[in-house]
Amino acid sequence: MSPGALRAQLLTPDLTRKGQHANVPRADFDRLKATLTNCIRNGAASQNRTGHEDFRGHLLGRVSFVAMINPARGERLRKLFEQIAW
Fold first, then answer.
1. Residue 42 DSSP one-character state
2. Considering only CA atoms, which of 70, 6, 51, 85 is closest in space to residue 62?
3. Neighbours of 69 (CB within 10 A)
4. What is the pLDDT of residues 9-23, one digit of tens each?
C-alpha cells in the first residue's frame, strides 16, 4: 500500500472499508494509556515532558477525543484520568 493510500485510509476509514468504523490508532491509545498510568503512579508533573501550561486540560482533551471516536475506549481512559492526583 502506498503512503498516500495509507494516509487516506487513516483519515477516511469509513469510506475505504465498508462495515468498519473509525478508530484511534492502537499505538496512540496505548501511549495515552501509559501516560495516564504513569501520572497515577509518579504524579502528573513527571509526565509533562513538553511543558504544557495546562497539562490537565491537555490530557482531558486527548481523552475526550478518544471518547468521541470510540466511547468504550474513552471511558477506560477517563477512569484512569479521574485517578490522577492533581
1. H
2. 70
3. 14
4. 555 554 556 667 788
